[in-house]
Amino acid sequence: MRSLIDILELSTEEIGELIAVADDIRQNPAKYREACRGKKLATLFFEPSTRTRLSFEAAMYELGGNVLGFSEAQSSSASKGESVSDTVKVVSLYADIIAMRHPKEGAPLVASMKASVPVINAGDGGHNHPTQTLADLDTIWNEKGRLDNLTIGLCGDLKFGRTVHSLIAAMSRYENVKFILISPEELKLPSYVKRDILVKKGIPYEQTTDLEAAMPQLDILYMTRVQRERFFNEDDYVRLKDSYILTPAKLKNARQDLCIMHPLPRVNEISVAIDDDPRACYFKQALYGKYMRMALILKLLGVEV
């Protein structure tokens, strides 16, 4: 039995296989319609989510399976003080696979050690979000045709952004990738991510506060929101929340084949005026995520079509 807690648990070869399966699902949906008949996915979401939870549910339904679960801690026995360990031990009796989101870093790892079915980390605090990274990788592959030889701009909240940390870890394994880290001083990429991944692997990176100056270099611009729920101080959040707002004017020096990504939800960091720009890929990114979650569910359940 295998779980997925961290994107680095998947080799680059396995990621390539998942991308290939996701592509096949997209092109031949009928072929997969009964693949998980009789299987149940439990979605244990101790933290609010729209896209990730519904994406997992849509993925399982489109594979012919069923879904059970909860969408907030208050509607589970966690509100009575039940431990994560006990919750997953019980849920393992009812479901074949678990997707879990939790505000505490490491909770899905603990769950995977106690569950008797595969556990997928659907986001744990500011730590990891591997299935969002799979969505990101599939987006880059489909939009750019490669996962190497890329300059990637990461903009906004790089301190608390688990999607950013996971994407850096994943992309660090491909050749000739460079990162440009664009953020206010207070929301810079944590030093441990720089030290353990970028410096350790000799991956080139630049840090800047100037989005427009960085724009001409970028193959990919990955925007993030400043996350109110990660701040201890409301005044700090208010001061920083509008640090970077992407507008058509800021794209004037961008490449014509730029790929603009965002893990969503968007607050106001990308102007709606950009939604119709052919370079805007963030809604497609959400769709690619569903197909990658379908491919991952098949892999972890050992289902071959």
TrEMBL record:
* GO terms, molecular function: amino acid binding; aspartate carbamoyltransferase activity
The pathway it acts in is: Pyrimidine metabolism; UMP biosynthesis via de novo pathway; (S)-dihydroorotate from bicarbonate: step 2/3
The record's Gene3D superfamilies line, in alphabetical order, gives:
Aspartate/ornithine carbamoyltransferase
Class of enzymatic activity (EC top level):
transferase
| Alphabetized UniProt keyword annotations | Pyrimidine biosynthesis, Transferase
Q: Which reaction does it catalyse?
A: carbamoyl phosphate + L-aspartate = N-carbamoyl-L-aspartate + phosphate + H(+)
Q: Does the keyword Transferase apply?
A: yes
**Keyword Glycoprotein recorded:** no
Q: InterPro entries from the entry?
A: Asp/Orn_carbamoyltranf_P-bd, Asp/Orn_carbamoylTrfase, Asp/Orn_carbamoylTrfase_sf, Asp_carbamoyltransf, Asp_carbamoyltransf_Asp/Orn-bd
Q: Which Pfam families match?
A: OTCace (PF00185), OTCace_N (PF02729)
Cite the Aspartate/ornithine carbamoyltransferase carbamoyl-P binding domain residue spans from the record.
2-141
Give TM regions: none
Residues binding carbamoyl phosphate are 51-52, 101, 129, 132, 264-265
- EC number of the protein: 2.1.3.2
Q: What span is annotated as the signal peptide, if there is one? A: none
Q: Which domain of life is it from?
A: Bacteria
Described purpose of this protein according to its UniProt entry = Catalyzes the condensation of carbamoyl phosphate and aspartate to form carbamoyl aspartate and inorganic phosphate, the committed step in the de novo pyrimidine nucleotide biosynthesis pathway.
Q: What PANTHER family does the database record attribute to this sequence? A: ASPARTATE CARBAMOYLTRANSFERASE, ORNITHINE CARBAMOYLTRANSFERASE, MITOCHONDRIAL
Family to which the UniProt record says this protein belongs? Belongs to the aspartate/ornithine carbamoyltransferase superfamily. ATCase family.
Q: What is this protein called?
A: Aspartate carbamoyltransferase
Q: Which organism is it from?
A: Candidatus Pullichristensenella excrementigallinarum
